[in-house]
Structure formats: structure tokens, C-alpha cells
Design a protein that fits this description.
globular
């Protein structure tokens, strides 16, 4: 398995030894390069997800999707991005200008921040703290503040109702989402993203295999809670067009709306990436204990494994969106507090018992 830290060490040596730069300028240049890479990957993956959403939607509805702009409609997303970039950004009368302006910034910062925690390959983890999962959930919670500020600052009753719905939904489902991550922490014994993946290397060591029934339950509940956390259907009540026009971002135009649009799709990828990392081994290949097969799997680069697993989960969540009808607010909260939350708490106890008795795959 290729270790990406070889590249980072080479680049650090290039700056310090070959170019003779000091600590400050070396670290500054490295941070700028990493930041640009994160933003570039963020934008490119968003464009891929938007195109994928349209094609998956069209497939399930027996349609063609984008076909005219570029071959197979590949340039349609680029045309939409250019249109959004050149559209005028205007301010709403009697809106709270300060909240109205900074709300999209909060949302995009939360999205980019959580995106930076994803481990792409061995040695390619941008933010890799020993309390990584804790920080990841803390950073992602900033998005709730941005959503509520958007609705309140717009001075629009429909946006306020949507923001209140979205806030209560996201806060509620964060509980089950975090409890599922705690189950994984109990099994792996660490909250550091790279160590969670390292704990899943080896024959049948992915958590969905290693942790048996509790890990599978945690994985499925995580997908449901993550889908609701990202405001995706059938939990997209904050954007119920028939009653709220467009939701909490009704009064936004241009890239003000574009930030929310980007964050929604990237939150889908972040949820899928976390699920792939924590429960499906991240960049770790599948090993079954057969030497020839395992060597062949190890030859596949880690980032291929990660993106393959992440986009598989993305496809599953898109399948769910275009299959089930939108739920009511009472149904959404009932599902969380009456079913998913108790199930997650029981699952933590079950996982603790399994780890304490050592009846998991070692």
C-alpha cells in the first residue's frame, strides 16, 4: 500500500533543504498548498455529485438527464457554476445585514472543515488529531448556526419556519449520529481517523465484519441519521418547496445561494466518507486471509478504495432520496427520538459487552 507521507516529506525537504527556507515560510507555503488542494477537491467533487445526482434521478425516473451541453451533458454543471458566479448578489429589504452576510460563510466553513478530516490515503490525512471524531462532530455543528442565521436574518417568515425545522432536525439527528460513532470508538479504542482505518487493516477487519451485529446496526443508523443531518430526502423538510418556496435560503441569490448548494452536496459526500472510513475500512483494502488475493487487493491505491466506498454510499443515499416520499416534521422527530435514539443507546451497551467479552474478530 502506497504511503502518501513519502510525498509530503519530499515536499517538506524541498522547501527546507533544497530551497533553504526557514520554519515559518516552509509551514506557511505547505498550509497554502494544502488549503488550495482542499478547496480544489471540494469544488471538483461537488460538480461530480451534482452531475451524478441528475443522472441517478433520471435513471430512477426513466429519463435521460443532462444530454445537450457537452457530450452526455458533462458540461452542464460547468455552465450552471458559471451562471451562478455571474448572477447578482442583492440584499433583502429590512433584513439583518450582518446575519444575512455571514450565514453562508458559517455553512461553508463547517462543510469545508469536516471535509478536511477525511483520510484519503495512508499518510494523506489533513486534520488528524487524537480526538478527531470529537472535533469533526463539533465543526459540523457550526452548520446549524449558519442555517438558523440565514432564516432569521432574511426577515422572511417562510425562511424562519424552515430554519427552525432544519435546526431541530439537525440537532436531533446529531445525537444518533454521534452515538453510532461512539460504538465505533468502543470497538477500535481510538478517536483518531488514521488509527481507526489502521485498526481495520487485515483479513475481515472492516468494522461491519469485525463488530458483527452491533457494528452493522450502527452503520445503518448512521446512514439514516447522516442523511437527515445533510437535509437529504426523505428528510429534506427544510426545503419543502410546496410550502416554504425554497426553505431557509429563499432570499439568497448568486453565490450566497451557491454556498448552501455546495454545502448540501458536499455534506452528502462527507457523511458517505465518514461512513466509509469508520465502518468500511476507509482506504484499507478488503483482505480475506488468502495471500494471493490479499496481495492483489493491496496493489490497488488507497485513495481508489476510499473513493470507491464513499461513492458507493453516495449512490445508496441518492437511491433512498429518489425512492421515498418526504416525511412530515412530526414523523421525522418521532423516527429519531422514539426509534433511532433508543436503538443507538442499546447498541452502545451491546457493543460494550461484545468488546468486554472479546467476542469480536481480532
Amino acid at each position: 500500500m502506497f504511503d502518501f507521507s513519502i510525498v509530503t516529506q519530499w515536499f517538506d525537504g524541498l522547501l527546507r533543504q533544497t530551497l533553504g527556507l526557514g520554519d515559518f515560510w516552509s509551514i506557511f507555503i505547505e498550509c497554502v498548498v494544502v488549503g488550495l488542494l482542499i478547496l480544489t477537491a471540494y469544488s471538483l467533487i461537488a460538480m461530480v455529485l451534482i452531475f451524478m445526482e441528475r443522472k441517478v434521478c433520471a435513471y430512477f425516473q426513466c429519463r435521460l438527464g443532462p444530454m445537450r451541453v457537452g457530450p452526455w451533458g458533462l458540461l452542464q454543471v460547468i455552465a450552471d457554476v458559471l451562471k451562478m458566479l455571474i448572477k447578482e448578489i442583492f440584499f433583502v429589504d429590512k433584513a439583518d445585514k450582518f446575519l444575512y452576510i455571514i450565514a453562508p460563510i458559517f455553512v461553508i466553513v463547517a462543510s469545508v472543515g469536516t471535509f478536511s478530516f477525511l483520510p484519503w490515503n495512508k499518510g494523506a490525512v489533513i486534520l488528524d488529531f487524537n480526538v478527531g471524531l470529537f472535533l469533526l462532530t463539533a465543526v459540523s455543528s457550526i452548520g446549524v448556526v449558519g442555517m438558523f442565521m440565514a432564516g432569521w436574518g432574511s426577515n422572511n417568515k417562510y425562511s424562519v419556519v424552515s430554519a427552525m425545522r432544519g435546526a431541530v432536525q439537525m440537532i436531533s439527528y446529531e445525537m444518533s449520529l454521534c452515538l453510532c460513532l461512539i460504538s465505533a470508538v468502543i470497538l477500535t479504542g481510538t478517536m483518531q481517523m488514521s488509527e481507526i482505518v489502521e485498526a481495520q487493516t487485515g483479513p475481515w477487519q472492516w468494522l461491519v465484519f469485525k463488530g458483527h451485529i452491533p457494528a452493522i446496526i450502527a452503520f445503518l443508523v448512521f446512514l439514516v441519521a447522516g442523511n437527515a443531518e445533510a437535509n437529504r430526502g426523505p428528510f429534506d423538510l427544510a426545503e419543502a418547496e410546496s410550502e416554504l418556496t425554497a426553505g431557509y435560503h429563499t432570499e439568497y441569490s448568486g453565490m450566497g445561494f451557491g454556498f448552501y448548494y455546495l454545502a448540501e452536496y458536499l455534506n452528502l459526500f462527507v457523511i458517505s466518507g465518514i461512513a466509509a472510513t469508520v465502518f468500511l475500512g476507509g482506504w484499507a483494502p478488503i483482505n480475506i486471509g488468502v495471500a494471493a488475493f490479499d496481495r492483489l487487493m493491496d496493489m490497488i491505491p488507497g485513495f481508489v478504495w476510499f473513493f470507491g466506498k464513499a461513492f458507493l454510499v453516495v449512490w445508496l443515499l441518492m437511491w433512498v432520496r429518489w425512492t421515498f416520499p418526504r416525511l412530515r416534521i412530526d414523523q421525522i422527530l418521532k423516527l429519531e427520538w422514539k426509534y433511532l435514539m433508543p436503538l443507538s443507546l442499546i447498541n452502545i451497551v451491546l457493543m460494550t459487552v461484545i468488546v468486554a467479552l472479546g467476542i469480536y474478530i481480532k
